[in-house]
């Protein structure tokens, strides 16, 4: 939904805000994925060490 909103902003001549919106959205997904991967890795290492 929010990616569509960013694209709509770009198509309606609000290019700067649309690009900023999409970049921020992408960064949130990247950092969320990295956090989840590291969290899962640390939890699996703790479980296997018992």
**Span between N and C termini?**
43 Å
**Beta-strand content bin:** under 5%
Q: Which residues form runs of ≥5 with pLDDT under 50?
A: none
**Share of helix, binned:** over 70%
Number of helices: 2
Kindly provide the radius of gyration, computed on alpha-carbon positions and rounded to a whole number of angstroms: 17 Å
Number of DSSP strand runs: 0
Structural class based on helices, strands and sheet pairing? mainly alpha
Shape: rod-shaped
Transmembrane segments: 15-38
InterPro entries: Integral_mb_put
Keywords: Membrane, Transmembrane, Transmembrane helix
Protein name: NF038396 family protein
Describe, in plain words, how this protein is organized in 3D.
Keywords: Membrane, Transmembrane, Transmembrane helix. It comes from Citricoccus parietis. InterPro entries: Integral_mb_put. With 50 residues, the chain is mainly alpha-helical. It has two helices and no strands. α1 packs antiparallel against α2. 2% of the residues are buried.
Structure summary:
The chain is mostly helical and 50 residues long.
Descriptive labels:
50 residues; mainly alpha; 2 helices; 88% helix; rod-shaped
Task: Give the topology, please.
Elements: H1 2-11, H2 15-48
């Amino acid at each position: 939904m929010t990616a569509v909103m960013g694209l709509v902003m770009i198509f309606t001549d609000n290019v700067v805000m649309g690009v900023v919106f999409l970049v921020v959205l992408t960064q949130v997904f990247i950092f969320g994925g990295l956090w989840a991967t590291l969290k899962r890795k640390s939890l699996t290492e703790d479980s296997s060490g018992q």
